[in-house]
Design brief:
Number of helices: 9
Number of strands: 8
Distance between the termini: 15 Å
Oligomer: single chain
Low-confidence stretches: none
Mean pLDDT: 93
Shape: globular
Largest sheet: 8 strands, mixed
Order of helices and strands: EHEHEEHHHHEHEHEHE
């Protein structure tokens, strides 16, 4: 079992890097990528745990990028986490996240939420504060039954706590991953609100930028979406990646070691001559 998209407490996951690796090993995962949002802070701890557990750890990241007004997520795999350009960029994004968190808190407070920034900080174990940390706090305070409902009613466009953000450009994100020696993969493509025409336009852009794969099988996709993304990969002769997008046991519909099989006609990333070692 290969899982190339997971999160720890270094960003918005709820398991430490060590506990995440242990859980993956217990679930039968043999190759695991830690791809925290816009940071690599948990990779060294995860690598130590992976060596103890006898599984392969792929150092990674999930970069937030912007393309024509749309936020996309770009997974970088097998990175040099000490690359200076990557480190500088992640510091820049952390500053952007701080500013966004302050604005989200201001808007939530205006809508009647008490001390949202302080509450989100309690759920964040690093300086990186994400919308998920606000969501955990709002559930804790009884504003919604679960995290999905928080996002639906508070944190998406048109809702009280929504704040838009212009991230690094898609082009810059791909360049950063490649300069750090990594493989660039478009994360969970079915999650983006793109028409069929616009998605195919994006795929052409990804090809022109040298993006290495798209995430066909994802814990964020339905089975039907997995099949549709497999066809998209085939249409554009793009290798296929897979990952659970696991954030922790609080989301039981996403589990480590439980990915459905890759569509048989797709070329998996690890069989396309692309090195994950």
């Amino acid at each position: 079992m290969i899982d190339l998209h997971t999160h720890s407490t270094a960003s918005d996951g709820t398991l430490s890097p060590t506990r995440l690796v242990e859980a993956a090993a217990a679930a039968g995962v043999t190759t695991l990528a830690l791809t925290d949002h816009d940071c690599v802070a948990g990779v060294e701890e995860a690598a130590l745990a992976a060596a103890r557990c006898g599984i392969r750890l792929v150092p990674g990241i999930e970069l937030s990028v912007s393309w024509r007004g749309q936020t996309l997520h770009l997974v970088g795999l097998n990175l040099d986490i000490h690359n200076s350009a990557l480190q500088q960029a992640t510091e820049q994004v952390l500053d952007m996240r701080r500013s966004r968190a302050a604005e989200i808190a201001r808007k939530l407070e205006q809508s009647g939420v008490h001390a949202p920034l302080e509450g989100a900080r309690k759920h964040a174990q690093t300086e990186l504060i994400s919308r998920t940390h606000f969501a955990h706090y709002l559930v804790e305070q009884g504003h919604a039954r679960d995290i999905r409902r928080v996002f639906k009613h508070y944190l998406v466009r048109g809702k009280p706590g929504f704040v838009s953000c212009e991230w690094l450009s898609l082009e810059h994100g791909v360049e950063l991953v490649h300069r750090a020696g990594g493989l660039a993969v478009l994360a969970h493509p079915a999650r983006y609100t793109l028409s069929r025409t616009r998605m195919r336009e994006l795929m052409k852009v990804l090809q022109s930028l040298g993006v290495d794969a798209i995430e066909v099988v994802s814990g964020s996709h339905s089975q039907e979406e997995n099949r549709a993304m497999a066809q998209l990969a085939l249409d554009f002769n793009m290798p296929a990646s897979q990952g659970s997008d696991y954030h922790g046991p609080e989301k039981p519909w996403v589990q480590l070691g439980k990915l459905p099989p890759m569509y048989y006609r797709c070329t998996p990333l690890w069989e396309a001559g692309l090195n994950l070692d």
